[in-house]
Structure formats: C-alpha cells, structure tokens
Amino acid sequence: MEVKTKKEPLYKKWWAWIVLFLITALIVNWTNDHVDYIQTEDNEVDVLPVLAPATDDSYPEEEPSTDQPLTFTIGSDLPAGEYLALAQDDSPGYLLSTRSRDLIVSEIIWQKHFENHTIVTIHDNEFITTNNVTLLLIDDAVVPNFIDGILQAGTYRVGIDVPPGIYTLFPKDEQVGYFRTSTSSHPIHAHVIHQQNFTEPITIALNEGDYFTMMRAEIRK
Questions:
Q1: Which of 51, 85, 95, 149 could form an SS bridge with 221, CB 3.0 to 4.6 Å?
Q2: Residues spanned by the domain of 182
Q3: Boundary-marking domain end, from 122, 139, 156
Q4: Which among 14-18, 30-34, 50-54, 99-103 has the top mean pLDDT?
Q5: From CA 93, how far away is CA 113, in angstroms rounded?
Q6: Which alpha helices (H) appear in the chain, and where do they start and end?
Q7: DSSP state of 104
Q8: For residues 131 and 125, what is the distance between their CA atoms, to the nearest angstrom?
Q9: Minimal CA–CA distance to 197: which of 214, 176, 167?
Q10: The whole model's pTM is what?
C-alpha cells in the first residue's frame, strides 16, 4: 500500500524565509535610492539638498552664486536683517523659510519665487533655503535700477532705490503683469497697500517709504 506524505506548507520551510528576507532587502534598498519627495497626509514637498552650515564664527559676506540649493540658519550662519536676494543666470530665484531643517509643509513659514531680485526681511531662528540666489545684506548691496531707460521686474524701496512719483507700467511679452505696494519687506507681516494684475499699460503713484514689487512687467522712462 502506497503511503502518501503530506506536503509541508511553504511558510514552514526555512529556505522560504531566507528568500523573502532577501527580496524585502532589495525592495527597501531600491526605495531609499529613488525617494525624491517627502509624503505628508495631503501634500508632497520637493526635497532640496541641504548643505552643512558655516563652521566658523564669522558670517559670510556673500553667499556664492550657485545652482545648488543651500540652507542657512539665521542667527548662526547668517545674521537676521533685511536682504537683497539676486536671481542668477536670468532664471527665477527661489527662497524658502522654515522653522527647522525638515522640508515638510507643516514647517514652512513662507516661500517666494521672484524675477531678477527681491528684498526680504529675515528673523533669527528661521532656516532659509535658497535656490539660484545670491543673498546680500541690504546695507552692503546696490539694488539694480534703471538700465537703458528700463526698470526691470523686481522689488524696490521707494525713496531709496526709485524716487517717488507717477510711473507707467508695461506688461512684458504680452504676459499678465502684476504689481504690489506694501509697507515692509517681510513676506508675511507686510501690509499690502495695493496690488493688481494688468494686461495693458497702467499708471500708478509710488509714495515715499513704500516697497514696490512688479512681475512680468517693466517701467520705461
């Protein structure tokens, strides 16, 4: 009489667990090499490479021009204050302020894309990540002005960088222009006096002490 043996379940075989372990290790290793964003409950935030902060006690006079993102701790790597941020290579600049070095949505204080240049006030204990930007303390910088009769898009202090007066704004290359006047250079706490999109030339008044920002537009003398 032939005796039939009962086959042992696969999960009880020792070699099956070794195979499963190796497959899992390969999957985890591949995932770690290919993750390029942080997933939150409702959002995805691009992860920017973070470089080590300055190790000496002195503040760098100027952040070097770079196409790699850099993160600075305000108060240790750079002093708090008002900065001129210059975009490099005719490409838009980007600034991100966070409460920590963790680049997740819940840690973001403010972020800004800009043409040519902008002026921002940065406080102690903020973490500032820059991309395609050179940062200069405003007192040590010269804000770009009229070149060949053209004032390009950017942020200006009225009465310092441009004189008060009546100006005509022209949208560039058939784009929708935008301008804003505000009371300070802080991206959050500044009170907006007036802002507007426009597709045709418009005339506005710039008053002493205002901060004036325009995008996709220019002023012609």
A1: 149
A2: 143-221
A3: 139
A4: 99-103
A5: 6
A6: 14-34
A7: S
A8: 19
A9: 176
A10: 0.68
Q: Report how far apart, in Å, the C-alpha atoms of 200 and of each of 149, 194, 195, 206 are.
A: 20, 17, 15, 19
For residue 80, the cross-strand partners are none
Instruction: Tell me, yes or no, whether 147 and 221 share the same domain.
Output: yes
Instruction: Summarize the confidence of residues 98-123 as an average pLDDT.
Output: 93
Tell me, yes or no, whether 126 and 108 share the same domain.
Answer: yes
Nearest-angstrom CA–CA distance, 82 and 85: 10
**Band of residue 104 on the pLDDT scale cut at 50, 70, 90:** confident
Number of folded domains in the chain? 2
Residue 16 within any structural domain of the chain: no
Q: b/e for 96-131, b at 16 or more Cβ within 10 A? A: bbbeeeebeeeeeeeebebbbbbbbbbeeebbbbbb
- What is the mean pLDDT of the segment spanning 153-170? 97
Any domain includes 15: no
Show Cβ contacts of residue 40 under 8 Å, excluding neighbours closer than 6 positions.
104, 105, 106
Strand partners, 189: none
Do 167 and 218 fall into the same domain? yes
